[in-house]
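Technical annex, item 7. During the second reporting period the consortium partners agreed on a shared format for inverse folding records so that results from different sites could be compared directly. Each record opens with the tokenized structure and is followed by the designed sequence. A conforming record, contributed by the partner at site C, is shown below for reference.
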């Protein structure tokens, strides 16, 4: 009995010592930062839905400076907001930081058969990126331009119905309907518009609204138990993954149905035509010898896997799922922030409307016309400077011990860019850094700032967001259609400033607007 007691006491002491050793990790290395609490570190301050993580990081930057660190359970994170360090992280030291910051509960990117382009790393990421890149080429985007246009016109119809009495409408909700409609039609086999009647929308929205703290806590504090909990969480939806499971099953069904349809067409002598959506594009790269879900055709940690340009069926599901989730939220938020800034800066909105009138005079807006909207480019870029969306993606995992600035970075350490501070740093952007001035993007020196790491709404370097051009196309088409017909105006329901919340992304609670007819 005494032996068991001694063993238990020693084990408990060892575990506590381990957590305390990690808790003071940055203090031991002379790096400032918030200490938080033993065992959990600063987790309680970074998972609160009503206090967005990235705004909390911005507040810590004001207190601790442009380079500091904190812990989230056993995860050690270094925060940087200096332009040269950002460039090192994403470009010059890419080989040392090619992994992305992931909570252990998200799975092992080397082994997960559903790993996608966001979570994958190393040779597997290179392989997935090479396969997916043609999907977002100008040629591919040109083919889906009419689909995006059709969804934009459908949204206009709903706007006209809802604003007939002069009431304000929540543009965030309308933009979510639009982006869900577009991504549903180009990524998961949806054949027509399902705007304001899409049964999947609430499940996707709930993934971003979910404020269950136990999921990231378990992964960060007890990483050895993360895979066990992940297994049961995916088996039993009530543990916290119900919304993701529903979205995933829907995508599995869409891919399976498309495989069945293609096989039936082949048996009936019907030749495969041009790919209709992302499912077709990825199925064209599917491994011929994989006929059921869950099978992996390669050890992706080996360099030879880069030469395998075929996808497993579960990889097809994984790519379509991540494009669905990411494509829905970020574009809707960018549109929402743009709308708010245009409504609160009427002189800029008028200038943009004049450009749209000149460059897009016909009822249908063509792909080639979009490239002529130079001032709209400036408006979108300036919006994303003030409200950066890619903060979650602007993180890296140290894969080889190195030095970033004056800080020695060990393998496994996470590095997160404080985009909100970086994008409004007066040392980079001048004394008017916090002002909405689209004209700054007409200056050649502003593009140089982007190249050097001072502006990263879509990341930087090899892992820059693959969907950037698609998001830009969606936003330009919809804003052009709306601004030709309406003017955004604030009203009694409009929050000024916007009330922000969220965890994975930083979202406004609402964007209520009057849409005043220009006719």
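Designed sequence (site C submission):
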């Amino acid at each position: 009995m005494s032996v068991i007691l001694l063993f238990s006491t020693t084990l408990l002491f060892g575990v506590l010592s381990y957590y305390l050793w990690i808790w003071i990790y940055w203090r031991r290395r002379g790096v400032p930062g918030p200490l938080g609490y033993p065992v959990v570190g600063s987790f309680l301050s970074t998972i609160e839905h009503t206090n967005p993580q990235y705004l909390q990081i911005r507040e810590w930057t004001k207190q601790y400076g442009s380079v500091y660190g904190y812990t989230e359970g056993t995860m050690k994170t270094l925060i940087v907001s200096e332009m040269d360090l950002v460039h090192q992280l994403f470009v010059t030291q890419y080989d040392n930081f090619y992994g992305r910051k992931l909570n252990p509960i998200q799975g092992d990117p080397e082994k997960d058969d559903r790993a996608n382009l966001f979570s994958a790393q190393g040779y597997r990421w290179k392989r997935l990126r090479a396969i997916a890149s043609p999907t977002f080429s100008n040629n591919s985007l040109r083919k889906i331009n009419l689909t995006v246009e059709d969804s934009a016109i459908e949204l206009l119809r709903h706007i006209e119905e809802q604003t007939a009495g002069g009431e304000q409408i929540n543009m965030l909700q309308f933009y979510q309907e639009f982006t869900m409609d577009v991504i549903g039609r180009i990524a998961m086999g949806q054949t027509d518009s399902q705007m304001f009647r899409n049964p999947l929308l609430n499940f996707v929205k709930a993934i971003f609204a979910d404020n269950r703290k136990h999921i990231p806590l378990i992964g960060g504090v007890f990483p050895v138990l993360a895979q066990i909990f992940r297994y049961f969480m995916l088996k039993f939806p009530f543990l916290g993954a119900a919304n993701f499971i529903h979205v995933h099953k829907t995508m599995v069904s869409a891919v399976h149905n498309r495989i069945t349809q293609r096989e039936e067409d082949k048996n009936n002598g019907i030749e495969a035509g041009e790919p209709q959506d992302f499912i077709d594009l990825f199925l064209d790269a599917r491994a011929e010898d994989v006929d059921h879900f869950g099978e992996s055709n390669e050890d992706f940690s080996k360099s030879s896997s880069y030469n395998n340009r075929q996808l497993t069926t579960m990889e097809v599901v994984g790519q379509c799922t991540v494009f669905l989730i990411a494509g829905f939220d970020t574009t809707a938020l960018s549109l929402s922030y743009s709308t708010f800034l245009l409504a609160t800066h009427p002189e800029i909105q008028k200038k943009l409307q004049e450009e749209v009138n000149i460059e897009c005079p016909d009822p249908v807006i063509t792909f080639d016309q979009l490239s002529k909207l130079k001032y709209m480019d400036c408006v979108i870029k300036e919006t994303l400077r003030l409200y950066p969306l890619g903060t979650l993606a602007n993180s890296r995992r140290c894969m080889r011990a190195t030095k970033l600035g004056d800080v020695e970075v060990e393998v496994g350490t996470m590095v997160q860019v404080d985009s909100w501070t970086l994008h409004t740093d007066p040392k980079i952007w001048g004394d008017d850094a916090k002002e909405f001035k689209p004209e700054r993007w007409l200056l050649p020196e502003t593009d140089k700032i982007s190249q050097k790491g001072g502006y990263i709404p879509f990341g930087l370097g090899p892992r820059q967001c693959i969907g950037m051009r698609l998001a830009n196309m969606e936003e330009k088409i919809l804003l052009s259609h709306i601004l030709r017909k309406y003017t955004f105006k604030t009203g009694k329901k409009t929050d000024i400033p916007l009330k922000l919340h969220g965890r994975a992304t930083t979202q406004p609670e609402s964007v209520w607007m009057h849409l005043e007819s220009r006719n």
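The longest strand covers residues 67-72. The two ends are 87 Å apart (CA to CA). All partners now use this format for quarterly exchanges.
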